[in-house]
Every structure is written in C-alpha cells, then in structure tokens.
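Co-fold these.
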Amino acid sequence: NAGVTQTPKFQVLKTGQSMTLQCAQDMNHEYMSWYRQDPGMGLRLIHYSVGAGITDQGEVPNGYNVSRSTTEDFPLRLLSAAPSQTSVYFCASSTQGVNGYTFGSGTRLTVV
Amino acid sequence: ILNVEQSPQSLHVQEGDSTNFTCSFPSSNFYALHWYRWETAKSPEALFVMTLNGDEKKKGRISATLNTKEGYSYLYIKGSQPEDSATYLCAFLSGGSYIPTFGRGTSLIVHP
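Predicted complex below.
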C-alpha cells in the first residue's frame, strides 16, 4: 500500500521556470490538499480538491494552479517560479477528514 | 482564515517528565480536531481524530482531550522519552469544509 506518493523529492528551479509537482494516492480518498511549509509559518493551504473535477483555493494560492482529472492524481503547477516559492511542499489526502489526513513525503523546492 | 493557535511554541523537557500542550480553535461550526506528530525529515502522521465534546483519546503514553464549547484541546505525554521528540500539530476542521487548518505546532525536545 503506497499511500500518498510525491515526486520529485528535491528540485532546484531558476526564477521564471515552470514545473509540476506530482501527487498520487491509491486509497480512493476524495479529499486532497497541497500545503507549503515555511519556517515559523506551519502548514499553509495552497489548493484543495473534494473530488475529481472539483478544486478550490486555499490560503496562499497565488502563483500555483491545480487540476483533478482523476481521483488518484492532484498535480500542483508552478506557473513562473519566484524565490518566494522556495519551500517544502506537502500533499495530503483523506476521506472527509474522518480518519485524519495521510501526507506524502514532501518536495523540497528551491528557486534561485 | 480560521485562527488555530498552539502553545507553547517549543518545549524542552528531561526524560521522564510529563508534559502537555494546548491547541485553541474556533468554538463554532466544529467538525473535528486532529493531532499529528511530525518528526524531523519525515511527514506528519495522524495521532488522534477527535469529533465529540468531551472526547478523550489515548495511545500508549500520549493522550488528548477535547472541549468544543470553549474551543481547546490538550495533548498530554506521560513520562517523556527521547523518541517523543517531534513537532506536534493540531488541525481544526469546520463543518461543511473538512479541510484542515493547522496550527503552527509545538516543538518538543526530550533530553536524555
């Protein structure tokens, strides 16, 4: 049982480049979320999805896009990377939060 | 943006000490309160999911209580061990959303 799989684990981007962080879960969870973790800021919600075809913005959505074409996958796209997007990104999934959220292993992104 | 506060921000204790942390959250439109344990270089893992006022949950030496009317939860660790060193996160879920809002966490360091 793989749980939540995030790729890549590490990435360095130049300012202005775009990229996609991948997130896949095999637990048939309806709810999926992307968070970023910055020192002293805890986990802040970027975007979330409550099912295939449904996405919504969280607390810090600017500069990011998401889509949810299948239940399993929830990719996060950085449109034009900026140094302020240097962070650790976590994907998480759950069944309506009933059993808590399962987190991926994180992606450490550096934008130079 | 929902206000979820955790205190203290950090805590250093000696092996064998008992300790507790606080999570404060909005007292209206409550759905669930989660506690997560987050070890360095790993992902957050769910400890407890609490849904009812007066809930008490226990897992080994760790326990948690919930007061939804006044909007707080306590996490207790009895006889702390070095392996308990981690950041402990709480997350509030409101009814109709089911998307967690995280506190900034309490960092616990247990000294041998």
